[in-house]
Amino acid sequence: MSAFPKWPSVADLVGHTPLVRLQRLHAGRNNHLLVKLEGDNPAGSVKDRPAFSMIRQAEQRGDIRPGERIIEATSGNTGIALAMAAAVMGYRMTLIMPENLSDERKWSMQAYGAELILVTKEQGMEGARDLALQMEREGKGRVLNQFANQDNPLAHYQSTGPEIWEQTQGRVTHFVSSMGTTGTIMGTGRYLKEQNPAVQIVGLQPEEGSSIPGIRRWPEAYLPSIFDPAGVDRVLDISQQEAEAMTRRLAREEGIFAGVSSGGSVAGALKIAAELENAVIVAIVCDRGDRYLSTGVFAV
């Protein structure tokens, strides 16, 4: 009798997500607009990559051991991904997030067994980050700190960037990503620039007064320390209305059911495409739309 095959674990399924072309949202002028479907990761977002990276690297350094408690502030996707990774790797997980974010995110974290602490809308992510560090000082667990942890962009340098380069056969000319913790754009952008310095790295942030889940315009004191402005060639402001409208169009015209930050990313990519000819533009679709249903964004 032959030996059983080595079946993969959930952790082995992170990454290697599809890169697909948009069919009806035309980029024009012989441009090619491609989107990377990060919702195909096991916990449903691009954050699965840094979640496993941060835990694995901390383990290898001896900073944490299975059975210990991890604490992290999150707006949603990183928390869901960390809760999943903690379940796979044998850690206890405490997540801190603003109360005004979608119920689906809260329920997903708890489904993976994480303890959830909510801060007020007014405290926001800044308050969540402060509380996580306070709890660490009090000895209640270890903070991975996605905002200052170089293992976050490392995950994208080692996986997202190489995948895009291979999937486009080195033809990518522009990479577009919404910016939250900035790990995706920092790691992916660095890898692509090393392959071809002419590749343009474009970041998206919400315009003043707009609230877009997963994208932030940080106060200076809370700007993620992993962010290096020199790694981004151009930053575009996206309105909440633009991001939400494109999110609905992606679902209704392309069959791509994604979140609002993904809508912002594609809206930004189309703005860039309007200025270009013969470009290969890759945008990150960072998660799935099912965790936004209760917000009403798809009901318009």
From TrEMBL:
It catalyses: O-acetyl-L-serine + hydrogen sulfide = L-cysteine + acetate. Transmembrane segments: none annotated. Its EC number is 2.5.1.47. Gene3D superfamilies: 3.40.50.1100. Keywords: Amino-acid biosynthesis, Cysteine biosynthesis, Pyridoxal phosphate, Transferase. The keyword Transferase applies. It comes from the Bacteria. It comes from Marinospirillum alkalitolerans. PANTHER family: CYSTATHIONINE BETA-SYNTHASE (PTHR10314). The keyword Transferase applies. Residues 11-287 form the Tryptophan synthase beta chain-like PALP domain. InterPro entries: Cys_synth, Cys_Synth/Cystath_Beta-Synth, CysM, P-phosphate_BS, TrpB-like_PALP, TrpB-like_PALP_sf. Pathway: Amino-acid biosynthesis; L-cysteine biosynthesis; L-cysteine from L-serine: step 2/2. Its cofactor is pyridoxal 5'-phosphate. Belongs to the cysteine synthase/cystathionine beta-synthase family. One of its GO terms (molecular function) is cysteine synthase activity. This is Cysteine synthase.
